[in-house]
Amino acid sequence: MSSTRDTLRHVMLGALFTPEVPLGPTRDLLITCHVSATGKGKLHGSPECRTLRSAVSVDQIDVPFGEAVKRLCTSCRWPLPTDSPILPLGAAVSEVDSLTIWLDREAEDEEDLEAERDSALALAAGEYPPHAADSSDEEDDEAGHDEEWERYERARSIRSRRHEHWRRLHSYLTRSNEAVAEYPFLAPWADGLQSRLATVLDEERRAFAALVQPIRLMEAAAVRVLPEPKFSDDPGFAGLGVEAEKTFRRAWYEWSRRAIWSWQRLEDQDFSVYTVVSDTFGRRRKGRPEAHVAFRRLTTDWIHQAREEAGRPVSTAWQLVAVKAPALTRTHHSEPERDPLTLWEAAVIATYQVAFNRQAGTTALLVPHLIAEQLLACASDDMPAQRLTPDGSALPAEVLLEQWDHSAIAPS
Q1: How far apart are CA 172 and CA 167, in angstroms?
Q2: CB crowding 331-363: b at 16 or more within 10 Å, else e
Q3: Residue 40: count of CB within 10 angstroms of its CB
Q4: Distance between CA atoms of 8 and 239, rounded to whole angstroms?
Q5: Which of 141, 160, 200, 295 is most buried, by CB atoms within 10 Å?
Q6: Strands, E, within 224-336: which ranges?
Q7: What is the tens place of the pLDDT at every residue in 294-326?
């Protein structure tokens, strides 16, 4: 097998490794350094470092990594073979050290907190302003309408930011856990940072959850168990001709799929049905208004059925379910990270969390029956899920979560 030592990577060791970072077996590895002839001062990765320009002469020496780390120049890059054990350790250290950027951030001022409280009030009513009552003053009415739309747009933006920031923090913690699992000797150093980040993470989770309505998550889960509606011709479908049944099936599919995985009101998914009908008509206008009216009646009926299902009494009202949420999926450098969680899954985890295992990155949720069934039915390799009390155990959720072996779960 050919060696990779002919290929080098240049790494800023001094910026990455500080004296408090445990080095494990790499402490005894020799690294080539450059130092002034006096032997004092910083160790450098290159004789061309600008801080060495005033030195009368420069010596090259090999130093054990554990001894060198206290004197490493923070501006230099060290050429390391691509198979050097220092490289993967450095990547792990970077994952843990990245937690620091989210700590000790300034507290939000009262104006920001007031905006969040107002956003929670607005979103409790819906995603968009309710229809305003008739007004005799058209100018005042138009101004008020614009203000309300701006209010709701701001509320949705605040919720999205809270959701994205909470998921980003969770991902940083998850990746740092993976780094420590690979290099257990990093645990004593990482523990303090991870503990502090977990506190910030929980604050973000609570702030996000305050902007989500639990009843909408319940109704979304109810849509999943509704039977697929049977096509029944409606006079309003006349303009669709032979495409009527196909359009009906597509409308149900789009509406139910979006409703199941959303944190919005069921009514806010109506636009997906409107789009399906409009696409079928294309440029044709005859019969289009009647078809839209007919499909609005259909979605109203589907919403009614879902809410009836959500309100149906069940023998097991609440269940304890464990999940392991995935980190954001890294993409190309110029692309945003992708979230494997749906909006519904993220909102459920944030809303119903009763315990969180920081080291394992697992969460215990106390959820209504319908939500538990959807979590379990849709469990996957990305997000394993399991009931925590199948035998009626009365142990605390924290203990049950600690005992949960998510790696042994085989998704159905």
Answers
A1: 9
A2: eeeeeeeebbbbbbbbbbbbbbbebbbbebbbb
A3: 8
A4: 69
A5: 295
A6: 318-323
A7: 999 999 999 999 999 999 988 777 999 999 999
